[in-house]
Amino acid sequence: MALSVNVSDEPLTPSGRLFLQPEMRTIIHCALGVKHHMDIDAIKSTIKNSFMVKHPRFCSLLVRDKNGFEHWRRTEIDIDRHIILVDETAATNGGDDVDKIVNDYIADLSSSSPLGCDKPLWEIHMMMKQKCAIFRIHHSLGDGISLMSMLLAICRKAEDPAAVPTLATGGRRDWSGGKGKDWRGALMGVLKMVLFNLVFCLNFVLRCLCVRDRKTVISGGDGVELWPRKVATARFWIEDMKVVKQAVANATINDVLFGVISAGLSRYLDHRSPNSLKEGHQLTGVAMVNLREQPGLQDLTKMMDSNSTCNWGNKFGILLLPSYYYQRVEPLEHVKRAKVMIDRKKQTLEAQFSYRVGDLVMSWLGPKIASLLNYRILCNTTFTISNVVGPKEEITLAGNPITFIRANTSSLPQAVAMHMVSYAGRAEMQIVVAKDIIPDPEFLAKCFQDSLLEMKEAAIASM
After folding, report:
1. Do residue 115 and residue 231 come from a single domain?
2. 64 located within any domain
3. Is 139 a catalytic residue?
4. End of a domain among 94, 123, 157?
5. Which domain CATH number covers 455?
6. Both 140 and 190 in a single domain?
7. Is 255 found in the same domain as 112?
8. Any idea what the Cα angle at residue 283 is, between residues 281 and 286, rounded to 5°?
9. Model pTM?
10. The domain containing residue 277 runs over which residues?
11. Among 185, 369, 452, 459, which lies 20 to 30 A Cα-Cα from 325?
């Protein structure tokens, strides 16, 4: 419905408009499991007094003017409309398996329950019997880093109930590739960076247009975002990932994660379609890269400052990460190959390039063309992968200890998307699949878990 625009209305950012297009309507689901029975009144009181309902994005309606342009309009929050008690009889298909019940419920939300525009674009579904709160937040409100910071601002440290949780943040990357080298080494580093930039940015443009992965049994495509979903959870110990990281020189946790993805997908493909793929068959992943200089919860004060909104919202670029089908390689070889590929990506400005190109297309050609290009990238690749760092220490929600933090997004045209969140020494990866293409996501999760354990054994043996 078209409305007249108030002076106080705030226009959406280009990225916010992108996520409102029909092809890109994405909802982020964040599930928080708690130890004890949930006190609804305590949770409502906590949220009412939190930064969340004070932030302009969380207390604004989405309205459109007569020309179809979207705006944010401030409104009063009725917390009772945002807290939804889940019907216990409708969420017991998994018997006594709490994880299955929660995952099945999220899968159903992903494909059948959009957020209405008659209230701000967020809500919290309370699964009382399963002791789980599911935050549903429209992607137009912010990206994973913004929303994780906001959600954790509601929580408190278990060991210090007055303290807000903190997120671990890494140092700045060295993009020059020439640190500690003589002039010849520095020159080679610059030449490599220029070459990799040309190759990867050209590949990015071609993926927007016509180049796509060859079809496999896990390929999605145009229209798959509308198909029913299934959700499974893969669980890892951060300590196991560190053991593998130490066995590969200068590797990072992200290198290990992508090695696990490569090995797990190879395992799964060998199970689903044995002998149908050649060694080295490419499966391209889409990774979202945070472009903020100082990511994490420490930026929340700036996010809340009405005069400084630069840190809030959607500020990420896209990296295309090729994975390869290999069965006849040593377990650690997957990590080594992943490290080489990711190191090359770090020498480029691919993420910044994708962000700037998207911004220019939104400004010059409008959200329809920008969403079409983003949609083509997803159709032309095989999977999406994201990794958000959560708090290292245990935290509480309304005084109730949190047992797990999981996140995923609603349907994409890809048949599989993986979203990992670390918390208190553990990492849980939500695997969202189109169930008519990948009917057994629990087995896929096991493939990832077994791959990490196999890598850990190989790492210990090599020490």
Report:
1. no
2. yes
3. yes
4. 157
5. 3.30.559.30
6. no
7. no
8. 160
9. 0.90
10. 183-294+306-392+408-462
11. 459
* Residue found by looking up tokens 């553990």 in the block: 426
Q: How many domains does the chain have?
A: 2
Claim to verify: residue 320 and residue 422 sit in the same structural domain:
yes
In tens digits, what is the pLDDT along the chain, a chain of 463 residues? 445 556 678 888 777 888 888 878 889 999 999 999 999 999 999 999 888 888 888 999 999 888 778 889 999 999 999 999 998 665 555 567 889 999 999 999 988 788 888 999 999 999 999 999 999 999 988 888 888 888 888 999 999 988 888 765 554 444 344 444 566 666 776 777 777 778 778 888 888 888 899 999 999 999 999 999 999 999 999 999 999 999 999 999 999 999 999 999 999 999 999 888 999 999 999 998 888 765 444 445 555 554 444 467 787 888 999 999 998 889 999 999 999 999 988 888 888 888 888 888 888 888 888 889 899 999 999 999 999 888 889 999 999 999 999 999 987 899 999 999 999 999 999 999 999 999 999 999 999 999 999 999 999 998 7
Domain check: are 286 and 220 in the same one?
yes
* Paired strand residues for 422: 427
Distance CA 107, CA 435 (A): 10
Q: Which of 139, 271, 281, 334 is catalytic?
A: 139
Same-domain pairing of 114 and 222: no
